[in-house]
Amino acid sequence: MDGWKTVSLHPNPTPMNLADMFGKLQQMQENMKTAQQSLDGITVEADAGGGMVRVTASASKRVLKIVIDPAILNDREMVEDLTTAAVNKALEKAEEAGRAELQKATAGMLPNLPGVDLSKFGL
C-alpha cells in the first residue's frame, strides 16, 4: 500500500528498559531507608505560652524532651493546655522536617506525574 506511513501512538516510542527501572526503584528504596534512619538525628523545637512550655521532637515524630517553667506548675489546667499546644506544634514541625528530608532523598528519582499526590508516601 503505497503512501501509508507507520505512526506510533506512544509519546516515547523507545522501549522501556525494565532493568533500569528496577535499578532506579532499588536505589530510591535505599535512599528512603537511609533518610528515614537519619530522621532520629534531626530535631525541632516548639514552645507555647511564650516559652513556658518547650518541646523538642525528632523528625521521626518522637517527643524527646518537655521543659515546663516551674512558675506555672501550680496551675494544672494551664500546664495541660500549654503542653498539648507545644507538643502539637513540635510534631507539626517534625513532620515538615521529615518530609523535607525524604524529598531530598528522592530528588530527581521520581517522575513528575501530573495529578499524582505523593504526600501519602511522605513526599
In short:
It contains two helices and three strands. The protein is α+β, with helices and mostly antiparallel strands and 123 residues long. It has a domain at 40-106: Nucleoid-associated protein YbaB-like domain (Ybab, Chain: A), CATH 3.30.1310.
Which spans of ≥5 residues are poorly predicted at pLDDT below 50? Answer: none
Distance between the termini: 52 Å
Mean pLDDT: 82
- Say which CATH homologous superfamily of the domain at 40-106 is assigned: Nucleoid-associated protein YbaB-like domain
- Spell out the helices and strands N to C: HEEEH
Biggest β-sheet description: 3 strands, antiparallel
Return the CATH topology of the domain at 40-106: Ybab, Chain: A
Radius of gyration, whole Å: 24 Å
For the record, the CATH architecture of the domain at 40-106 stands as 2-Layer Sandwich
Fraction in helix: 40-55%
Number of strands: 3
Helical region count?
Answer: 2
Descriptive report:
The protein has 123 residues and is α+β, with helices and mostly antiparallel strands. It has a domain at 40-106: Nucleoid-associated protein YbaB-like domain (Ybab, Chain: A), CATH 3.30.1310.10. It has two helices and three strands. A three-stranded antiparallel beta sheet has the order 1-2-3. A hairpin with a 4-residue loop joins strand 1 and strand 2 (53-58). Helix 1 (18-38) runs antiparallel to helix 2 (76-106). It is elongated, with a radius of gyration of 24 Å. 10% of the residues are buried.
